[in-house]
Amino acid sequence: MSKRIILFFIGLIFFSGFNLARADVVINEVQVLPTGEKFLELYNTGGSSVDLTDWQIKKKTESGLESTLVSKVRLEGKSIPAGGYFLIANETSYTGQGTLNASWPPSNTGVASNNTVLLYRNEELINRFGWGEASDCQNPCPPNPTTGQSLQKVSGSWVVALPTPGASNESSSSFTAPSGTGSLNNENSSTQTTATSQINNKTTEQPKIKTQITGKILAFVGMPIELEGNAFGYSGEKLYSGKYFWNFGDGDSREVKANDIGQFVHTYFYAGEYVVTLEYYLNHYGNVPDASDKMAVKVVPAEILISRVGDEKDFFVELSNNTDYNADLSKWFLLSNGKSFTIPRNTILEPKKKMIISSKLTSFSVEDKNTLKLMTPQGEIAFDYSASTIPAKVVIAKNKIPAQVSINQDKNKNLDEIQNLVPADNLGASVIESDVTTNNFNSYLLMIASVIFIGVSAGAVYFLRQKKTISNTGDDFKILDE
C-alpha cells in the first residue's frame, strides 16, 4: 500500500511540474499593421527551456472561423530558452525589426484586426489572446492596435505601445486590461506570480530618450528606399527639437533638424548589406547622442522588368520578378506617351513569379509599346521596355572561298561560319545582311576597276601624244639650187 502511495505522489509531482512547464509559454505581443511588419511574439516566463515540438498556433476570425497559423512542422525541433522571446512573422514578406525564430507561410495573411490567437500543445489549448471585436476573447477585449503599434503584455495586463519584436515590452500604454485578460483560468497562481515578477523586473528600468528607424530592410540597386526617424521622450512623447545624424553605411550621411524630420529617400548603387544608424541629439550643438538606433538593409540587384507585352488585339503588360525576394510594387507605375497606370498598394510579386496586367485596366495600346517604362514611386525608371528590345548588333562574316571548291560547298561553309558568329535568333537577319554586303562589295570592285581603266587609258593617250614629233616652221618647204 505504501508503495502505491509513493508512486501516486511521484506521478502527481511529475505531471504537476509538466503542466507548469507548459503554462510557462505565453502569447506576449502582437502587431497587425502595417502588413509587412505584423508579427506574433511568445515569451517563456519559466526558469527552463521549453521544447516546441508538437506545438502549433491557430487563429480565429471575428466570425469564428478557425485556421492554422503556424503548423507543427514549422515548430518541430525549436525551443524557447528560459526568459526568452520567440518571434514569428511571414516567411518572406516581413520587413520589421528582430530576427525570426519561426514563420507562417507566405500565402497566409497572418494576424489581423479582431482576431484571436490560440496556442496548442498536442491539441490541448495552452494560451489564447483576442483583441478588437474578436469572437473568442475574455472581456474586455483590448482595442485593435493602430498602424505602427502593438498589443503587449506588461505586468499581467495588455497595453498598446510601440512594437518591440524579440525584446522586452514597453511600459507606456493607452489601454490597460484587467489582470489575466487573454490567459486561461487553469494557469497556476505561482506561475502568474513568477511571470509578473519577471516582467516587472524588465520594465522597471529608468525612463530614457529613445529613437527609432522606420523603413524596409530590403532595397534594390539604384532604386530609392524610404526611411524615417523619430525620437521619443521620457514619457513616450514625440520630440521635435534637437537634431538627427544619419549614416547610411555606404559612405553617405546627412544631418537634419528634428523639426524637419520626415520620410525621405536614399539610394544604394551597389548590392550588399548596409547598416543604417541614426543618432538623436537633444541639444542641437551637442556632440554626444542622447539616443541611437540602427537597422540592417540588404540591397540586391534590381531585376524587376517588363518581360512581355501583347499585340494590337490585347496589349497586356507582363511584369517579372527575377530576384530571390518578394518585391513590393505598391505605387509603382507604368508610363507611356503621357499615360500612366499606378499599381495598387499591397501588390507583392513573389520571387521568380510573373503578373499580367490587362489593357482594360491600363488603357494602353500597341502604340505605347516603344515608349513603355516601369517607374518607381519616386519617378525613377526601373525598366525601359524600348531599350530592352533594341536589335542585337549583327556580326557579318567575312568568308574566303578556297580554290577548287564547288559553289554549293562554298555556300554551306558560309552558312556554317555565320552560325558560329551570330546567335540563332538573329541568323536570318545575319545571312541576308551578308548577301547584301557581298553584292555591294562586287559593285565597289567594278566601280574601282572602271576608274582604274579610265585613268590608265587617259595616261596612255597623254604619253603617246608627248612622244609624237612636232614639225618646225619651214619644214614643209624645200630650197632648190639654181
TrEMBL record:
Gene3D superfamilies: Immunoglobulins, Lamin Tail domain. Coiled coil: none annotated. SUPFAM superfamilies: Lamin A/C globular tail domain, PKD domain. Keywords: Membrane, Transmembrane, Transmembrane helix. Residues 244-278 form the PKD domain. Residues 162-206 are annotated as: Disordered. Residues 16-164, 293-482 form the LTD domain. Residues 166-206 have a biased composition (Polar residues). The chain crosses the membrane at residues 444-464. Signal peptide: none annotated. This is PKD domain-containing protein.
